[in-house]
Design goal:
Number of domains: 3
Number of strands: 0
Radius of gyration: 19 Å
GO molecular function: metal ion binding; ribonuclease P activity
Oligomer: single chain
Pfam family, one: PRORP
Number of helices: 5
Family: Belongs to the PPR family. P subfamily.
Strand content: under 5%
InterPro entries: PRORP_C, TPR-like_helical_dom_sf
EC number: 3.1.26.5
Largest sheet: none
């Protein structure tokens, strides 16, 4: 179904195939409530996936995450990620899940590999404001110890 919709609508990049060819123009933009790109005026295709396709997509993301963790040589990572998957399966019906680790590491260049927790809460608040999500956030960390930037941990 997904492949048919992509092909029917000219591919995944405004009619130039899935990846496209030629020179790309990359810039920030917005999408209207009708699905029109306000930057280039193209109508974006709506692709609805069934439960099987959605599960395949989730499985592929999990496989990528596990592969990345394995490359980090962490013995505990597979167990921790599996525990998170199990917890999410039991408790999760979320509109958005924010990867605090990636936000906390964004544009960080600390020699000791520090992590800026002070970037996480503003990011979550920004998502809440920009999307009008009416959700309460919670914050959790994996068991691995965190190294903070010189500002120390924020008051969350």
């Amino acid at each position: 179904m997904l492949r048919e919709a992509v092909l029917k609508n000219g591919g995944g990049w405004h009619g130039h195939g899935w990846v496209g060819d030629g020179k790309w123009i990359v810039k920030k933009g917005n999408v209207s409530s009708t699905g029109r790109c306000l930057s280039c005026s193209e109508q974006l295709a709506c692709v609805d996936t069934n439960e099987v396709e959605t599960q395949k997509f989730v499985d592929s993301l999990v496989a990528l995450a596990m592969e990345r963790k394995a490359k980090m040589n962490s013995c505990e990572s597979d167990v921790v990620f599996s525990e998170f998957q199990d917890w999410l399966e039991k408790h999760g019906d979320y509109e958005a899940i924010v990867d605090g680790a990636n936000i906390g590491l964004y544009q960080q260049n600390f020699v000791d590999g520090s992590f800026s927790l002070s970037q996480v809460l503003p990011s979550i608040l920004c998502i809440k404001i920009s999307t009008n999500f009416l959700f309460f956030h919670f914050f959790f960390c994996f068991r691995n110890p965190l190294k903070y930037s010189t500002n120390g941990p924020p008051n969350l």
